[in-house]
Write a structure and sequence with these properties.
heterodimer; A: 251 residues; mainly alpha; 10 helices; B: Alpha-Beta Plaits; 2 domains; globular; disordered C terminus
Chain lengths: 251, 336
């Protein structure tokens, strides 16, 4: 078995020991769509022609982005579990490179994110009548894959550098608030104050959600997508390098 | 002569904690370990044993110097080194959410074991470590001793040429410890090189073909148990059991500055470094203090040697030199 396959098998085995893991990663984000999304759709009357005319369609990409973000943060948190169990340091003596270790850890969770995205998109189309651009599914899948990996590498930097679980939880809570609300997740950016808009456009989650929104429903500015895609790819590469350095500094 | 499994040259590791003076945890250590041997790295707490092991197992980088394991440089080719080693780290290490069996399987998968071999070996190892009954239980539900069993059992799942064990027997019951020691000896006789650190010196005495005693990151002594004992000729173990413990004997003996002194009930155990005639005179003098039920005078144990070589007392200072030099040595230590 190759090192990557061995890590995948281990991660899968650990996840299989507790179905709650699956609930949090796969089903929990759906709750946002079915409760918050549907609630907003009915409570607010958005003008015709607004990107939020069908809030469920607008919000679908946010749920996918949120899931990527959450799965990545949970995966990074598992470094603490491994460290507490002592297995983290033992694994660093296994015949795997540090980069294989990072990639292996996220690969399984990318799989979970893809399942989550598929379930969410199908249910959005079926229950909420969201019109899905099935022709753009490869773009959506790519955004889920790169998005989950990028956020995992980003969080891994902090999970590896911070030794205290509670400190890491504080950091993730702050990130959750800043990244999710200062972005295009919940509302379009155009009507926002200039400073808010600038912050949101500098936010990698905006880049990911915009690609996801275009990939799922065709909403968004196609001219902006190549820039946002490239920016997110750079963010992922930089985060991977940062995580690798942080992992090497563990030794 | 077979090539050494491990070669270490002038290894230095300096830790520079923020706001504190740098610490030289390993300070110019050089040694080699013969293939198929059991090598013991001994020293008091903070001597640099674990740091040395961490460098050899690619968990830490040396500040300077060079180390090779199975002919691969630990800094230049860490992955090649990791392909050839199995490690039991000092801390408890197991996937608590996985069963004992899955822990062994996961470890073997990382080392690329084929499915058929894996299945056969996992049953054998579970049996050898008395884990059959607990094979399906999550490790988090096992006691500390059983968790350690799972951790140590892993190294018997694979055939890596070099095995590192950092205080492997912590938390093990004596029966299992004995069984593991026998298994380690068997592995060494098959050609595997075993490197271990331990605080239980009788373990090292029984297991190791070759021992390196370190203190403050530097070599203090090197050789097999017999060589080390020769190095410490003139150290005697005296055990006396009195019918009634003579009054004030503890203070009297302490005044003689023995290397080690313990009094349990009416039994006095001490290690002294004195000429033979002086030891016999001392025994004779003590026997006049009360009726002696049992008397034993023997040569030094590894523990005595260890204490003598690593003790911070003034009389043991200046012992951090190459064995074979200085007037206390018998010219036989230091096999490098």
């Amino acid at each position: 078995m190759t090192p990557l396959a061995a890590i995948l098998a281990r991660e899968g085995r650990i996840r299989a020991t507790n179905l709650l893991f699956i609930f949090w990663d796969v089903l929990y984000p759906l709750g946002y769509l079915l409760v918050f999304g549907v609630g907003m759709n009915h409570a607010m009357r958005f003008p015709a022609g607004s990107p939020m005319e069908d809030y469920n369609a607008f919000f679908l990409a946010a749920v996918l982005g949120m899931a990527s973000f959450g799965i990545a943060s949970n995966t990074a948190w598992s470094f603490f579990l491994d460290r507490d169990n002592g297995i983290f340091y033992e694994m660093l003596t296994y015949p795997i490179s540090r980069s294989q270790y990072l990639l292996g850890k996220v690969l399984f969770n990318i799989g979970v994110a893809l399942v989550q995205a598929a379930v969410t998109i199908v249910l959005a189309a079926w229950l909420l009548d969201v019109r899905i651009r099935w022709d753009l599914t490869p773009l959506t899948a790519a955004a889920v894959v790169v998005g989950t990996a990028g956020w995992f590498f980003f969080y891994a930097i902090f999970a590896l550098a911070i030794r205290r679980n509670d400190a890491f939880n504080t950091v993730t809570s702050i990130f959750y608030f800043v990244f999710l609300f200062a972005s295009s997740m919940f509302y379009p950016l155009d009507p926002l104050p200039a400073i808010f808009r600038a912050v949101a456009y500098a936010n990698p989650i905006t880049w990911q959600v915009d690609v996801l929104r275009y990939g799922t429903t065709g909403l968004g500015d196609p001219a902006l997508l190549p820039i946002e895609t490239a920016a997110f790819a750079l963010f992922t590469a930089a985060s991977f390098a940062g995580a690798l350095i942080a992992l090497r500094q563990q030794t | 002569m077979p090539a050494p499994a491990i070669e270490v040259e002038d290894l230095v590791k300096v830790f520079s904690p923020r706001g504190r003076a740098p610490v030289r945890a390993v300070d110019g250590l050089s040694f080699s370990v013969a293939e198929g041997s059991i090598f013991g790295l001994l020293g008091p707490n903070g001597a640099g044993k674990t740091t040395t092991l961490r460098i050899l197992t690619t968990l830490a980088r040396a500040t300077s110097g060079r180390a090779t394991v199975a002919a691969f440089d630990v800094a230049a080719a860490p992955l090649e080194v990791r392909r050839r080693i199995a490690v039991v780290i000092q801390e408890q290490a197991a996937d608590l959410l996985l069963s004992a069996r899955d822990n062994l399987v996961a470890f073997a998968r990382f080392h690329g074991l084929g499915r058929a071999t894996l299945r056969r070996r996992v049953d054998d190892v579970l049996e050898r470590f008395g884990l059959n009954e607990y094979a399906g239980r999550k490790v988090q539900d096992l006691s500390g001793g059983y968790r350690r069993r799972v951790q140590v059992a892993k190294i018997f799942m694979v055939d890596t040429p070099v095995v590192f064990l950092d205080e492997f027997s912590t938390g093990m019951d004596p029966i299992l410890k004995r069984s593991v020691m026998a298994q380690l000896t068997a592995e060494a006789s098959r050609g595997r090189t075993i490197v271990l650190t331990t605080q239980v010196l009788s373990e090292a005495e029984e297991l190791c073909d070759d021992i390196l005693i370190v203190n403050h990151g530097r070599q203090v002594a090197r050789g097999d148990v017999n060589t080390l004992k020769l190095l410490q000729q003139g150290v005697y173990e005296v055990t006396m059991t009195f019918e009634h413990l003579p009054e004030g004997i503890e203070q009297e003996l302490a005044a003689l500055a023995p290397l080690r002194l313990s009094i349990t009930g009416t039994t006095v155990e001490m290690a002294v470094k004195e000429p033979e005639s002086r030891v016999l005179a001392l025994v004779s003098q003590l026997s006049e203090r009360g009726r002696v039920l049992r008397l034993e005078v023997g040569s030094a144990t590894l523990e005595d040697i260890f204490i003598e070589l690593t003790s911070p007392q003034p009389r043991t200072e200046n012992r951090e030199r190459e064995p074979g030099t200085g007037n206390r040595d018998q010219g036989t230590g230091g096999t490098q």
